[in-house]
TrEMBL record:
Xref: PANTHER family: HTH-TYPE TRANSCRIPTIONAL REGULATOR NIMR, TRANSCRIPTIONAL REGULATOR-RELATED
Organism: Nitrospirillum iridis
Name by which UniProt lists this protein: AraC-like DNA-binding protein
Entry's Gene Ontology molecular function annotations: DNA-binding transcription factor activity; sequence-specific DNA binding
SUPFAM superfamilies (UniProt xref): Homeodomain-like, RmlC-like cupins
UniProt key word Transcription: yes
Keyword Amino-acid biosynthesis: no
Start and end residues of each HTH araC/xylS-type domain: 154-250
Alphabetical keyword list: Activator, DNA-binding, Repressor, Transcription, Transcription regulation
Domain of life, per lineage: Bacteria
One Pfam match: HTH_18
Gene3D superfamilies assigned to the protein according to its UniProt record, in alphabetical order: Homeodomain-like (1.10.10.60), Jelly Rolls (2.60.120.10)
Length: 250
């Protein structure tokens, strides 16, 4: 028997630091934080989801979620047959951060308030159609960072994730994880596509973006991410995201 629902929804609130361990769903999932920032790990990639963005997870994508700040999570589950290739909606086949324009935001919140969208109700079917259209048209955003797989490089990456402002050089970091600087450079390039210095900068900028998403000032976000100069932070942030930190925060 066909599933009577087109879209299911869930609204949950989490405290800072709460983690949802790796799991997956048979339906496609849209993860949106009405408040707070989520860090989603899927397929060896870290996805940052601040307010005004959402992460799209195709059916079957294993993922873990970490909360930064108090998070008001609003989740939509979309029937897998509605997001399958050839259905007309150009939804990403892989995990992707999407921009949430005002109309899409109101759609998400309205559907969560409704609870479920049934296939046998015409108004629900129309609402699901608008949702899929808006998701297909949503801007894809560069808020991800590939994680290394080698245990030594991964240990280093986790150390820096805990403290992105850590100023230790690669020789010092390598000694702590049992690998030479040369080996780590090779591993990061092979496994993430970035040289270590580039990867570290991307991590810092994503961390800064998450802090801005919680309302922290531009100056403090830059300092927390390891930038001693606000001007250097603003310049690097603009190159990465195409907007200034102040504009992004707004």
């Amino acid at each position: 028997m066909a599933d009577p629902f087109l879209v299911r929804s869930l609204a949950l609130t989490f405290s800072d630091g709460h983690r949802l361990h790796s799991h997956q769903h048979a339906w496609g999932q849209l993860l949106y934080a009405a408040r707070g920032v989520m860090r989603v790990m899927a397929d060896g990639v870290a996805w940052l989801v601040p307010p005004a963005q959402a992460v799209w997870l195709p059916p079957g994508a294993a993922h873990a979620v970490e909360m930064r700040g108090g998070v008001a999570m609003r989740t939509l589950y979309i029937a897998s047959d509605r997001v399958a290739p050839g259905q007309g909606e150009d939804l990403p086949a892989t995990c992707q951060v999407l921009g949430v324009a005002p109309l899409l935001r109101e759609l998400i919140l309205h559907i969560v308030a409704v609870g479920m969208l049934r296939a046998d109700q015409a108004d629900h079917a129309r609402l699901a159609g608008v949702l899929l259209d808006r998701l297909a048209a949503a801007e894809r955003l560069p808020l991800s960072l590939t994680w290394p797989r080698d245990r030594r490089a991964l240990a280093l990456a986790e150390r820096l994730r805990q403290d992105p402002a850590d100023e230790a050089d690669l020789d010092t970091l390598g000694a702590a994880v049992g690998a030479s600087a040369r080996t780590l450079q090779r591993l990061f390039k092979e496994e993430t596509g970035l040289r270590f210095g580039e990867w570290r900068q991307q991590l810092r900028l994503l961390h800064a973006a998450s802090l801005l998403g919680t309302g922290l000032s531009v100056t403090h976000a830059g300092l927390e991410a390891g930038y001693s100069s606000t001007s250097a932070f603003v310049s690097a942030f603009r190159r990465r995201f195409g907007v200034t930190p102040a504009r992004y925060r707004a």
